Amino acid sequence: MKQKQMMDALPGTVGEGLAQRGVDRREFLKFCTAMTAMLALPPSMAGVMAEAIAKARRQSVIWLSFQECTGCTESITRSHSPTLETLIFDLISLDYHHTLQAASGAAAEHAREQAMKDNDGKYLLIVDGSIPMGNAGYSCIAGISNYDMLVETAKGAVAIVAVGTCATYGGIPKADPNPTGAVSVSDIVKDKPIINVPGCPPIPVVMTGVLAHFLTFGNIPELDALGRPKSFYGETIHDRCYRRPFYDQGKFAETFDDEAARKGWCLFKLGCKGPVTYNACATTKWNEGTSFPIESGHGCIGCSEPNFWDAGPLYKALSMPVSATGSMLGAAAAAGAAAGVAVTWYNRSTKAQAKATHAKVTVQELTREEK
Amino acid sequence: MNHLDLLTFARGSALNWALIIFVAGTVLRLFEIFGLSRKPDLARPRIDSPGSGWRTMFTRSIPPQGMLKRDPVTYIGGYAFHLGLFLAIFFFAPHIEFFRSISGLSWRALPSALVDASVVAAIVSLIVLLAHRLNNPVKRMLSTFGDYLAWTVTFLPLLTGYMAYHHLFVEYTLMLALHIFSVELLLVLLPFTKLFHTFSVFVSRWYNGDFFGRKGVAS
Questions:
Q1: What is the CATH number of the domain that holds A183?
Q2: Residues in chain B closer than 8 A to A307 (CB atoms)
Q3: What ipTM goes with this model?
Q4: Which of A293, A310, A327 represents a domain boundary (last residue)?
Q5: Is A118 helix (H, G, I), strand (E, B) or coil?
Q6: What is the pLDDT of residue A85?
Q7: Smallest Cβ distance to B12: which of A323, A329, A333?
């Protein structure tokens, strides 16, 4: 029997959109249950979330892309729970997004301005990519510099979601020597709540999960010191990694194709940055829960951490020095030896000098001191 | 500067400078010690005791008759601490990776749980030995600032390493950076404090053994 349709949906709400698209309540509750689990909320919140989202007006979203590679958009198009279609057609109103919108040129910019005007103070701003503070010409859209567009669009936003490591912490554009003077969204915007969703790219369900949280509760989720939602970035990859027992037992792959690697032993020695990387890859995984980089045989590169690109070589174990070499130590030993010879020469000459100036005293020459 | 930046600094320039000071300082001190030279002993040895110096290098590690009973804390604590520290430094897998990256040499690691136990033994021993040092009037009288400094800079890497491994109190990335900084402090101070016995202990034992052997004292 066909499930009961979403009933009593108010016009213009998410519920109406779902009803129009033939999404039944059971299916919608399933989605909400998955979302509450991902957001680390109690199971009882699924019903609350369903009700809240169904009654909510479709959230106006403006997505700005600055110095980026479109990997974050590529990632979100692979989101499976909810799918991008669900997200765009049912949950939000994506009013501006370079890659996904049909309009181009002046019409596209008009869409952004219209959305800003119609939803002033209420729209959600999503940003991917870093902002160049050097020459404005490094990156601009319709003749507007990234900086100006961000400042202008952020003014009327209710909150900002910075997706990807470029928008959250500067990412690869900021990597040494940072030729464009790239900075993050939070370096520029100081007066709006900002949710950082780092990753290169971020996990799709993390992006959609953060949006679902905002739609449900109308506020931003609990964040850590780096502005990341704790529910997704609360633990390290290493602590949730299925290869962790091998680390504890001291079983490591030495190369990418040795017997140990084939057995799935720990990749710490091959430079895995899992121990210092906070993300949800090991639990939510990628591509509809298929796997994550470590499961595919490559160590974590720590892409969701600030300045990960300059945090030492990718294939050096965390306990290895970043740049110290044997020849450097050899030079230090040579310098020590040279200084040692100098000190020895000084000590010996002092000794010889003391010997030379030593005046012998005979017993007869000694006089008793009068008390 | 976030925690990862701090860790990168700890593994990068800070470590480079600490290693340079450690290596140069150690070589300098060795030259200084060996370069002092002594007057040749022209007196005939009291008895013929070949190998007295070499024997003393090892016999000094064994408590003399009755001493273990008289001062068990110093002996047992000393053994437990030195063995625990040795295993932690040279047989923890991440540490072996450190040595491999610098020297190209590597060897088999011990299971982390075993290293963990040896670290606990070393930490407990150090605390007991400090308490003993403070409570024993003779030890207290003999102790100088240098002894307490040596204790502190040896204790810190053990404590921070243990806390990092068990994710205690402080976020892991920061704790790992602090652990590396504490090791760097140890490296910088080692050549210039009593901790230099790491390199000089067997040399001085040989010298004492040989010296006393010539004077007719059995080693």
A1: 3.40.50.700
A2: 2, 4-5, 8
A3: 0.82
A4: A310
A5: helix
A6: 65
A7: A323
